[in-house]
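quick one
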Amino acid sequence: MTTQTLSEAKMTHHDLLKGQVAIVTGSGRGIGLAIARRLASAGAQAVITDITQEFADGGAKELTDKGMKAQGFICNVTDVQSIEKMAEDVMSKFGKIDILINNAGITRDTLIMRMKLEDWNAVIETNLTSVFKVTQSVVKNMSKANYGRIVNIASVIGMHGNFGQANYAASKAGVIALTKTIAKEYASKNITCNAIAPGFIDTAMTQKLKDDIKQKYMEFIPLKRFGQPEDVAEAAHYFCTGGSYVTGQVIVVDGGMFM
Ligand code: NAP
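structure w/ NAP:
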């Protein structure tokens, strides 16, 4: 390859998502922010959304400081009005929505015998019901445009279950089933919907776990390292830039922990 074609190839790589608008929920930090950064680095206009305007703006600033296109919008994924307002604001600002990454999520871990109904409900609402509600608010615009890429962040726990994570496991299993249903209902509109099931990723969510628990996980990870948010972002980038014949799938990003 000549130098010229190499630089051309590089340019194309940076432009793969040029002109596309990508909403990432819960992207003030962690995996969501890494996904927004990856999509913006490919030229997308990133819509950083989080519970408070301050968190959303913080994430957006990190990207704009690096010369990428990003703007923060407030969106609490457990609040229907907040979701609808965000979708309307994004449409009036940018005129379209090409990509939706349903990423926002929480844990409230404890064994079933101690789990309060409010812990169950909070996790199901934030991790599962939110995916239904945000998708519903956004997909109608994708349908009209006859194009869309939806990526839901599930978890290996949604495929295998885990001690102390009944609410989380059920929510993520629900996300996987919902992903396949969205894929079926919207395939005729040229909208793909896939899920990513991360294993142990080094973010605030896992940093709060005790050292002996982290050690236990490490024993089961053949690649012998915890995942980074960028590892998950790479998979999201694939679904948004390539994979036009791939829908209703779950890609596991876990260093080989489950195979
Ligand atoms: P994180 O660092 O805790 O980030 C979660 C993000 O979601 C935060 O920005 C948080 O906002 C936001 N959020 C929480 N509740 C929200 C709500 N009601 N409305 C809007 N945003 C909300 O965790 P993470 O590890 O990046 O997790 C991202 C996703 O990956 C989650 O769905 C998680 O279940 C999934 N996942 C993570 C791992 C892992 O090992 N880390 C593994 C498998 C799957 P605040 O900053 O305001 O709290």
